[in-house]
Records
---
Amino acid sequence: MSNTLIVYYSHSGNTRKMAKIITEQLHADCLEIIPQKPYPQAYNAVVNQAKHEISQNYQPDIKDIQIDLNKYSTIFIGSPNWWSTIAPPILTFIMQNQNHLINKEVIPFCTHGGGGFGHIPQDIKRLCKNATVLNGFANYGSSINLQEVKKWLSKLDI
Ligand SMILES: Cc1cc2nc3c(=O)[nH]c(=O)nc-3n(C[C@H](O)[C@H](O)[C@H](O)COP(=O)(O)O)c2cc1C
């Protein structure tokens, strides 16, 4: 049984791809966060909706989590970079589970369209109080650089 969990949300598949690679590399468990109401597929529609939601700190309902977070000491949290921060479903996950993140190692990762991490690590540090937030990894788009991911994971003290 693994003590490492990879939690992620993905709208168009890039972050899912990265989450799967990390999961395989670490033989970890994986949890996809799914909003109750899917975001629109049309780019402009999702960009506008996300902008509005993020400006309001909106926490959309997400599907129930069928996993006991207490089992894990290390939790990776992955999101697409949306307006330089985490996507709202990940905000919901963190806010609903803040108590389960205390005293854990939390490791952010994201995929992005050129903006890198934006302020995702800072936001995760602010939201996951009393967690130890380790060095994360931001990957451009859908082509995940396996060597770079392996290098990053090998440097983490987990
Ligand atoms: C609503 C929205 C906002 C975005 N904002 C940014 C941004 O601020 N900076 C950036 O580099 N990429 C931005 N992107 C691009 C995504 O971060 C990128 O395509 C990511 O790999 C998508 O991950 P996914 O396939 O897991 O959903 C945005 C995309 C969407 C849909």
Note: The mean pLDDT is 96.
---
Amino acid sequence: MRLVDFHCDTILRLVNGSATGDLMKNDGHLDLERLKQIGALAQFFAVFIDWEDETVKPDPFGYAINAISYFKGQVETYQDQIGIAHNVEEILQLEKENRIAGILTIEEGAILEGKMERLERLHQEGIRLITLTWNYENSLGYPNAKDPILMGKGLKPFGKKVVERMNELGMIVDVSHLSDAGFWDVVEISKKPFIASHSNARAIKDVTRNLADPMIRAIADQGGVIGLNFCPFFLNEENHETVDSLVQHLIHMIDQGGVEVAAIGTDFDGIGGKMDLAHVGEMERLVHGLRKAGVSSSSIDKIFCENGLRVIRDTMR
Ligand SMILES: [Zn+2]
């Protein structure tokens, strides 16, 4: 399958030493061997920065640059299997060469620390998507939270400027983890389609990390996508990732925003718990589940690949 997956935390596991193995083959949810097996097209790899982590705290930007260098080193080592892509043309060229396209992202806009020159630097380093917040307040805005006061806080002035500059630079704006008010600011400010790289439907599992129906429709209206998150805690009350639960969220997104809004953002290597579809090598099971639920082949192609490529074409440079 030509899979475009908008989010994984594989770099984190490899860099912090919790994984056995490397990018080619490891004991986690995702590696090049399994991506090749399923015929994946493009994989977004997040450099995740946990602002409160003791190893990150002394020099978060340095940590990010190191993680980027580590990934580039792995790509170099396995250059017959993968290349780094910065736009849709490079993704399609890599496909012709039978190589996977790796796209670098930053999960946690805190890394900018209010400095626009860092955004320019990250673009130069090859970063093509930034998740504006993780679960803490940062110089851009506020995270999703149960606290309605926090959830009602929008983007800060610097966050608004960052969205505008990301549009100009050709970087994808990612609203996963963002507060609801911040989300609506992005709707207002972004001149390009934006995405929720790894979020599900709040109507099905009522957690703040998921998207309310009007938010799903707003992303669709601007031509963006939502990457289906495989995290058990964002799927159902049983906190059990089953193929049926994944299908249910996708069908709800499609009901609300049309088939053009649905995409994949597994969050593999950043999640745990009860998972029936346990790693990227089993992705075909989701295809079967969608077929069983009556989703057409052309819609399945859109969810797994075409919608993602459209957003990449419209945004990444
Ligand atoms: Zn995340």
Note: The first helix runs from residue 10 to 15.
---
Amino acid sequence: MIRGTQMNARFSDKSVLVAGGTGGLGHAVSLAFLEEGAKVAVTYREQKGFDVLKNAARANTSSLQGHKLDVTDEAAVKQLVERIFTEQQRLDVVVNTVGGYVGGVKLWELEPKAFDQMLALNLRSGYLIARAVVPAMLKQRGGAIVNIASKAAVDHAAGAAAYAAAKAAAVAMIDSLAADLKGTGVRANSILPSIIDTEVNRKAMPNVDFAQWPKPEDIARVVLFLCSDDAKLIHGAAIPVYGDT
Ligand SMILES: NC(=O)c1ccc[n+]([C@@H]2O[C@H](COP(=O)([O-])OP(=O)(O)OC[C@H]3O[C@@H](n4cnc5c(N)ncnc54)[C@H](OP(=O)(O)O)[C@@H]3O)[C@@H](O)[C@H]2O)c1
């Protein structure tokens, strides 16, 4: 959709950060915000993902900024948020779609390095992002934070102990953060996807019927709703987005 002709521009000129904005879900979330008029900054590690996103953004490319950094690095996250505030003067929305999955391994067989990586990608990322953005959001007296957790946070299948533990902890962290933020105008919520219909999942599970899997674009709609004024009463929620799965 071309800027200026948006039928539904709830985020016109809002400043949005999508951590992991080039991933299977992040890509769709970033495009959805751009289509509704937002200025979007995304984080990524691989340049290729950002090039694909930039290409897909078409007429909205000038509203898209990419930042190559590791969101588990405290100094890098702080520096990025400071840069966004210097350039945009505000940050209205932060969506953390960074995560990682190690599964199919029993807990006692899981390498400590993989365990630490699950905590870093699925828990520490959200902590560092909240730590960097909340003080500034409090100053501007408003903001919306959405952290992408997983169905695994509440449905603890075999072979996914570290991932489930990290996602469950992330939901608890955001719930407690929401309690900290009551009455401030800054809202924080979690989203719990089941298996998403991404390219990576299709490749990993080629024999599964993926027609039922929730599409990234449909989850993006839920994310945008949560970040919009229509959701001003929703704070400290963990929203399942399982579709028919
Ligand atoms: N896919 C699913 O079926 C599913 C199901 C339930 C929950 N979830 C959760 O939903 C979220 C999105 O999943 P997804 O499938 O879209 O993931 P994804 O495709 O792996 O995308 C992750 C994104 O985060 C970026 N990223 C990863 N580590 C980073 C780091 N340390 N610093 C900065 N950026 C980093 C990646 O960039 P690069 O690609 O450049 O590395 C990519 O943009 C995750 O939290 C995931 O756990 C996914």
Note: Residues 20, 22-26, 43-46, 49, 69-72, 97-99, 101, 121-122, 148, 150, 193, 195-196, 198, 200-201 surround NAP (CB under 6 Å).
---
Amino acid sequence: MNSGHEIDQRRARRLNLRQDQKGPVIYWMSRDQRFQHNWALLFACHKARLLQQPLEVVFTLAPSFLGAPLRHYDFMFKGLAEVERSLREAGIPMTVLFGEPGVTLPAYAEERRAGLVVSDFSPLTLVRQWKRNASASLSCAIYEVDAHNIVPCWLASPKQEYAARTIRPRLDALHRSFCTSFPQPEASCQPDSLNFCQPVKWDDLLDMLDIDRSVMPVSGITPGTAAAEKRLRLFLDKVLDRYADKRNDPNAEAVSGLSPYLHFGQLSAQHAAYEAARCEASRENREAFIEELFIRRELAENYCLYNDKYDTFDAIPEWAKATLMEHAADQRDYLYTPEELEAAKTHDPLWNAAQLSLLESGMMHGYMRMYWAKKILEWSPSPAAAFETALWLNDRYALDGRDPNGYAGVAWSIGGLHDRPWSERPVYGKIRYMNASGCARKFDVNRYIATMTSAQQPTFF
Ligand SMILES: Cc1cc2nc3c(=O)[nH]c(=O)nc-3n(C[C@H](O)[C@H](O)[C@H](O)COP(=O)(O)OP(=O)(O)OC[C@H]3O[C@@H](n4cnc5c(N)ncnc54)[C@H](O)[C@@H]3O)c2cc1C
């Protein structure tokens, strides 16, 4: 078993056929925005030591990213400022390049006469396109290291998996060798490397972006790795023991609230799983949490890696498409425009409360997310329109939006992804149904509505 002090070479793969050369090693940080517990940074440190070369970190900032508004950039930049401080303390400079990443990164590598580039992994199409462009123009080697998943996504499975039950045995078989502790990142050849690079002016960069500034930052969750670590500890010590029983009760404050940190890579899922497996909570609770954090999350990554239509209605399974199309013309009791939904102006106070929580706090409890998306299916003119509206709202307001989990979550709720056919009913066809009375059987709906419509929404615990 890997002790965690070596890097399992199966985590890395080459993206072009160039050789490692003499010259600085560049870690192109993208999705895994943290100093600690980051296999891509560790791999870059390892290469720099091996080749006796200095290491630097580059973050490429596109003028906009899949419609992300100010709320998301604010969270990300505050986290990145913390990463920059940690890197500086370790003698590693960080540079931000502004512009089209597939172009700015190779140009910078050329200018620095880089010996090799290390990137982290994302299954999202746009990021993969940047990488393809960069790999083709670089004159040095480029590697990709999966620092986001416990089991590297391409190793977990070579194809799109049907469901949790089909990916679970594969992930379980590899879990022991990959879910290790982490060594400390260390760069050993850093002669005056901080001299050529000024501290990043994060506020100036924020001003340069071409983004929607009407979706404001949220105050209920502190960005960055230190805050993520604190939240993880609090969750493991005080909350996890009610997770298995209460995680579907949005009033119970029984979930971790870690998804924004995981999404921006401010927290490592592997580190969280490693700590969870060793904490004092009961086995049942530890296992229930690891099922979500590991199996369900990595199933969503698998979906996006192998289904390049992942953010469209076209991606859903054939049986689901067929049943939804059969019911596309069914009478809808209510029809709302995307704007009415956005404004939380429906006849259903429970749905409105969930939408308000998304607008105000950038979060929505996982159980409510399913109800929320299924009602969008029920109240939209077509299943394809529902898919589009749900993703638009999720990605515009949820701090953890634009994530494989979100694409899979919407496709599960509206399109039966990773699910099976259920008994047939209007509009839904054979897609699994949810309604307000089902919610009322599970939790105190009035209490949830009162909390989410009060001025002071909870921040999960
Ligand atoms: C319509 C819909 C939209 C969603 N959109 C997103 C999204 O944009 N971003 C996002 O990260 N998750 C999304 N999810 C999945 C899930 O609801 C959230 O991950 C979870 O609510 C986050 O809260 P938490 O961190 O407190 O979860 P916890 O219950 O504490 O779980 C811990 C971690 O496990 C993972 N996880 C939990 N549930 C799931 C799941 N069903 N599928 C995959 N991974 C899971 C997440 O990384 C989560 O942070 C969506 C689900 C649905 C049904």
Note: The radius of gyration is 22 Å.
